Amino acid sequence: MNNKRNNRTNTRKEAIETGVLIDVSTYAREVDLMVPTAISKNLWDDINKIPAHSDHTADRRLRKIIFEADYDTWKAVNYGSGSTMIYGVPMEIGESCCCLVKFVVRSGDDGERVITLMRPDEEL
Question: 99: phi > 0 → left, psi -120 to 50 → alpha, else beta; which?
Fold first, then answer.
C-alpha cells in the first residue's frame, strides 16, 4: 500500500493555517461582502510585486481586487456554490498591466458559502 500523503490540504482551515490561503474576510467586509473570503498565496505574492514608480500599497491593491469583484461575486454567491468566474483588474503586475483573478464560490468546511480568489491557472 502506498502511504504517500497528498501535498494538497484537505480543508480550507488547513489551507489558511499552512499559508496556502490567506484569509482576507476583513477586507471583503469593508465592501459589504459578508462571505468568508480567502486569497491564494500565489495571487497575494503577485499583488505584492509593486512597481517602484507606483504609489500603491499591497493593502490598496488587495482592496481593489476585492472591490472589482464585488458585483460579480454577489451574483456568484446568489447563484450558489460551485460558481467560478475570471475577471481582470487594471493593475501592474510585473510586465502586465492587468491582473487576472479567478474566484470560486463553493461550500466551506462547515457547508457555508466561501469565496476563494486565485490566479486563473490555480485549482483548489
Answer: beta
Interval 53-73: pLDDT, tens: 777 788 888 888 888 776 555
One-letter identity of residue 20 = V
Question: What are the strands, taking DSSP E only, across 1-124?
Answer: 21-23, 37-40, 83-93, 96-107, 113-118
Phi, psi of 116 (to 5 degrees): -125, 125
CA atoms of 64 and 100, how far apart (whole Å): 12
Q: Which residues pair with 86 in a beta bridge?
A: 102
Q: What is the block-wise mean pLDDT of the chain (124 residues), using blocks of 10 residues?
A: 46 94 92 88 88 76 80 58 75 75 88 90 88
Grid cell, residue 54, equals 507606483
